[in-house]
């Protein structure tokens, strides 16, 4: 656990990870409202991100109850907080600035790719099968999101 200055409380890394997934869903919901012609894509992505958050919240509860978890890698907290801050800035941008669909897709694509490139799914050294399987599933689905966004970007050209 670490002290989260922004939240003002002690939180575990899976909770921050889950919150990040929920924030990505919120960003995609904002994009769905801004770009109704692409609303179906954004709504589907948001729904999948909400599922990711739910998986992580359930896993946090299950692992805490069973005293099983994982070792947090040295760079784990920095990655979790970097991703959180990036998502927060994109939400603020989507709420206050007129952006194009191209910008929105590029932002989402950058976010999805950075979660893979920055090894967000390697934040933990799993000590349970459940965590290993969940991280692998989220990683596969994030790769699928990136591919979907690449196709949408290509379709704009």
What's the shape? elongated
What would CATH call the architecture? Answer: Up-down Bundle
CATH domain class name: Mainly Alpha
Category by helix and strand content: mainly alpha
CATH superfamily: Ferritin, core subunit, four-helix bundle
CATH topology annotation = Ferritin
- Given as residue ranges, the uncertain stretches (5+ residues, pLDDT < 50) are 1-9
Number of domains: 1
What's the order of the H and E elements?
EEHHEHHEH
Q: Give the number of DSSP strands.
A: 4
Average per-residue pLDDT, rounded, comes to 86
Alpha carbon gap, first and last residue: 46 Å
Oligomer: single chain
What does this structure look like?
The chain is mainly alpha-helical. The protein has a single domain, classed as Up-down Bundle (Ferritin), CATH 1.20.1260. The protein is built from five helices and four strands, in the order ββααβααβα. The protein has a two-stranded antiparallel ribbon with strand order 1-2. It has a two-stranded antiparallel ribbon with strand order 3-4. It is elongated, with a radius of gyration of 16 Å. The termini are far apart. Residues 1-9 have low confidence and may be disordered.
């Amino acid at each position: 656990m670490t002290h989260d200055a922004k939240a003002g409380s002690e939180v575990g890394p899976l909770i921050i990870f889950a919150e990040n997934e929920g924030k990505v869903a919120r960003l995609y919901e904002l994009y769905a409202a801004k770009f109704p012609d692409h609303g179906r894509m954004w709504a589907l992505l948001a729904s999948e991100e909400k599922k990711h958050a739910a998986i992580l919240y359930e896993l946090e509860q299950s692992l805490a109850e069973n005293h099983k978890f994982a070792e947090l890698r040295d760079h784990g907290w920095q990655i979790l907080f970097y991703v959180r801050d990036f998502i927060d800035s994109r939400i603020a941008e989507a709420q206050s600035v007129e952006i194009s669909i191209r910008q929105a897709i590029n932002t989402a694509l950058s976010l999805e790719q950075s979660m893979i490139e920055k090894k967000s799914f390697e934040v933990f050294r799993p000590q349970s099968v459940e965590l290993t399987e969940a991280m692998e599933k989220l990683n596969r689905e994030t790769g699928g999101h990136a591919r979907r966004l690449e196709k949408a970007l290509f379709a704009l050209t």
